[in-house]
Amino acid sequence: MPTPPQRPGEPGRRDMQGRGPVPPPDPATRRLPRPGRPEAPTEQIRARYQPREAATEKFRPPEAATERIVQNRPPVEPNRPGPEPAKPSSRWRSPLAIVLAAVIVVALVVIGLTGAELYARHKAGSVLVAVTECVVEDSATVSFGVKPPFLWQHITGHYTNISVETGGKQVQAAKGMTADVALSDIRLQGTEDSKGTIGSLSATLSWTSAGIKDTVAENLPGVGSLVTDVSTDPSAGTITIEAVGDTKVTAKPLVNDGHLNLQITDVSGPFERDTVQAALDGLMTKLNDAYPLGIHADSVSVTDTGVVGKFSSQNASIPNDESADACFSQL
After folding, report:
1. 168 phi, psi to nearest 5 deg
2. Radius of gyration of the chain from Cα atoms?
3. Span 119-149, pLDDT tens digits
4. In terms of CB atoms within 10 Å, which of 136, 266, 293, 308 comes out highest?
5. 81-84 long-range contacts, Cβ below 8 Å, gap at least 24?
6. Of the candidates 237, 242, 255, 178, the residue with the CA atom closest to the CA atom of residue 216
7. In angstroms, rounded to a whole number, what is the distance separating the alpha carbons of residues 160 and 280?
């Protein structure tokens, strides 16, 4: 007879693979009733299939392989610093940076030398202007030669060229006179007798007709106040001094033994010729003796506007004694 069907969990029932009897199912789970609510049937939902252990194990790496990987890994020493990162190369070591630095240094040197040059010129110019203004009793401007650089001239005390020009108001007692002076080979190397020497000095003194009139009026008391006009005659090389009372004195400028003189050629009026000549000689002696540094007259000429004289001096000693000329004490 055929075997009657058996329900799962009955004795003698085997599973689908025939490995043995199937265990009886778990008893149904009951839900505790809540007060006031009807109890609903509950059903336990069970998973039909459970994953087999063997399927899970095949994805696990073999322990031998894991151990082999760990053994091949290099040992790590604790507290050992790693390799230092490479430092970037310095930008100042490039050729462009070196050239730029050299240019900056040269520029700073040039600026420094230029500043020192300007300061030395200003300092020396201020001293020479003060000396010149003291000598001529008028304003003055001074300029220096450019070769060699003035800073080197100032350091060595050897000046190649210096130019001086006065304002034109006067040169000492000579009113209306302008001096244009050029000096060369000036050596400020003091000795017991002098503060230095001036190798060469040349000066052009321009004396206007109006300046001659004012000079005569100021330096010839009594007679000078009578002078009304001074005129020149370039063709004859003479000057004419006019005074009140139809008085006229005609004189010719001359250079005699390094001195500038006025030699009378004609006199009209109440004054004697010898008297007027003596007065003019005294005036010119006063002017000639006042020139410093051994300056003497070389030539003189009469122009439409006055008288122009050329003066010079060679190897002049700069006074060391203030009593000789206090103006040079500032050098």
Report:
1. 95, 5
2. 61
3. 777 777 888 888 889 988 999 999 888 788 8
4. 136
5. none
6. 242
7. 39
